[in-house]
Amino acid sequence: MPSALRIYIGTTAGVTAGLSAWFVLSGSSIDWRAFLFFSLLVFLAESFCIDLPKAGAVSITFTIILAAMVLFGPALASLSAIFAAFIWRDIKKGTHPIRWIFNGSQYSLSASAASLTYVGTGGVVLTEVGRGLNLTDFPQLLLPITLAVIAFFLTNTLLVSIAIGLAEKMRPLSVWLINVRWAMPNYFALAPLGLAIAEIFMAAGYIGVILIFMPLIVARQTFQVYMRLRGTYLGTVQSLIAALEAKDPYTRGHSERVAKIAEQIGQELKLGENELETLRYAGILHDIGKIGTARYILRKPGKLTEEEHRRIRLHPEAGALILREVNFLNHVVPVIFHHHERFDGTGYIDGVAGDEIPYLARILSVADAFDAMTSPRPYRGSLSLEVACRELIDCSGTHFDPKIVQALLRAIEYAPEKPEIAKGQLQFNGV
Amino acid sequence: MESKHRFLTYFNIIILAAGLTILATEIRSINLNESSLVALVVFMVIIALIRIADVELPQGDHVTLDAAIVVATILIFATPAVLIIAAGGIIIAEVSRDQSSGFKKILLPLAQRAIIVSIAGLWMTGRYVTATDPDQALTLLGPDLAFAILMTITFFFLEIVFNQFSLSQRRSLPFIPAFFGSLTLIGPVYFSLASIGILMSIMYPSMELWGVFLFGLPLVVVHYSFELFLSIKSTYRHTISALTRAIQMEDYDQRSHSERVADLAIDIGRELGFHGERLESLGYASLLHDVGKLGLDVDSFDAILDSQGMSENVAPHAQIGAEILEQVKFLEQFADIVRKHHLPFSASPDVDRRHPIEARIIALANYFDQLTQVPLAESRLSPNQAIARIKREAMSFDPKVIRALVSVLKRQQRFTVPTW
């Protein structure tokens, strides 16, 4: 760990300790039962955070701190926020204590910033006035609440970004900018829940708050199972296809490579994350219709009969039929159905041309052809990268979308000025 | 049809019981002023909205989250008013659904709800009801809370019993495993619905109808996460069965051998008391039992070896299938079942460890399907003939599983008991 980071975390912890001591000693009365209750809630909320598929995790710790602030004011909010230091997972895994210290102190400092702003701009502390919120309170409360949310957000993200910047040797500002974009809406969405919890506490006390947390925890558990299953889904399909393919030396690993190439082309063409995901699935599954096609046809060296050709040509349609019933793969079906169309309309299944072929299907067909050429076949050995690229360029505009071929060449950093290879010596059949 | 007959009997009994309970609650005793009338209508509409968006469960029944609202209304109003609200909600929902729902489809849930509400509501008779005495809003937090909790437990218990019972009558399924399966699957959801309902009633005096909208939020969150959870599960199931269909080469449109075996194996498993995750695993394993055939060349020596192997009970395709599954993290748990699905049964004290019951079930379901579904119509056996054949060859199958298969077939009326 860099020493700058150590000093930084030490300073944060020191400031937190100083502030906490001041809160305790300055004589502001603290309801210790409520303190214990909210500390427990903070601990639970931070432990039961929801892992997001792409980046980080969302927790409702902020909501609880906000409720504590509106109900009891700065001292209790900041002190109970310290308990965000303890996360069940970390305790079980035994992570480095310095992470706990930093997490606790950054939450506590953010809570102090928010609640001092709130009280300073005229926000009411509900237990002091001794009543719940009324609808008429809202115009008056809107400003303090908004400012408090912003103060919490700024303190929290700045402290975290600096720490990440120091740990990963990146510029804190750029880390901060990435985080701000997706975190800000979250904070404002969670704020009303905080007010609702405060209101429930005023009306129904501790039991009310417990009752509102039950369903949220159940929902979180269910959601977590969903995320886990979803996360392993691609892996499951991938390894099942790989295991099936492994029985045939000529197709071993083909689907996985096609998926990878298609994804690289997609990245080169700046596709969004959802489309890239569709491409990955389409790549993995594009030959699913071929798995059952009698193996002797696929392995047969030499020319195929008319009937054998017909059966092979059915495989995109078969694949689409097989996957049609899986709702989750709805976007993937047309990509697979059209992955043997040609850009000039002479392909199969529908014989559509140009823009009528789905974009992702055009990408998949280039990736498929590229991998088919660069791996061995029963009737020939594998072609060199040079020959394969030449062939792709030659077939641009007839078989393939030229823009996509260009993207592939960029992705694999093919330099066209390499020695030319005599053209026309291979018959590329595109299967 | 015998099962239709049984279902009708059940239907009539429920309607009769509901009529009696409604009479007993003296619905005329209800007195309504203008503001509570508005509240009644609002609750009705909310129940209807939630019912329209209900979640379909894999077994084909539904979980309706409106139970949270019904629980809340039991604690807010007295039972007669709840009967009106619940009935109104159900009628609005069913009438506004797209497909025309038959008279019976409205009447059955209506009657069931009436009985459940009346019985669960008994816990609260003579106790505090929020709306009648708004000044004492917080008394529910006292000892009455225990009764409120008892009421919700009764409510959800009866809800599951009634739903599963009518489902098992309609589909000819055994009731007990269906009940436990449903309890483990939707128990947590009902638990969170109960806490939302209780909270809603506590907050009703201070927030009135706003509270209902506020607590709609956690309700939506629960609903959404549960729906996602079910959808990803069905995605797995559909994907595996799509892949097994790919193994079959032709006829992608037909239900494949693997799917038929899976259906039958699940029925047998249920008959033997399987439920929940165990039943699900049995389904996956039977879908995948022939995956190893992919590793065999149909026209080559391998295939001959395979059928040769079958008679010596080693079955190379089972071995290959197990090897394929062992490479897939999610599926490796089924490898042992697939490996042993052609192993002949031999009774011994440690048979369950040596030869998993799932493998024995699949062995029988597989054989039964082969006998009854041969492509050639003239060599196809009827279920009766197939059972007779299996009993003659009883040595290779587990007698317990054969008995279960026979009672499944009887239940589904595919098997007629010979009378002599």
Please provide a written account of the structure.
The complex is a heterodimer of chains A (431) and B (420). By secondary structure, chain A is an all-alpha fold. The two termini of chain A are 53 Å apart. Chain A has helices spanning 3-25, 32-47, 61-72, 74-81, 88-93, 97-120, 126-129, 138-168, 172-245, 254-268, 273-285, 288-291, 295-299, 306-313, 315-323, 332-337, 359-374, 385-394, 402-411, and strands spanning 50-51, 57-58. Chain A is built from 19 helices and two strands. Chain B has 420 residues and is mainly alpha-helical. Chain B has helices spanning 2-24, 34-52, 67-76, 79-96, 103-121, 144-171, 175-207, 209-247, 257-271, 277-287, 301-311, 316-326, 335-339, 351-354, 357-372, 383-392, 399-411, and strands at residues 55-56, 62-63. The mean pLDDT of chain B is 79. Chains A and B meet through α9, α12 and α15 of A and α7, α8 and α12 of B.
* Biggest sheet layout of chain A: 2 strands, antiparallel
Distance between the termini of chain A: 53 Å
- What is Rg of chain A? 30 Å
Task: Characterize the biggest β-sheet of chain B.
Answer: 2 strands, antiparallel
Q: Count every helix of chain B, treating DSSP H or I runs of 4 or more residues as helices.
A: 17
Order of helices and strands of chain A: HHEEHHHHHHHHHHHHHHHHH
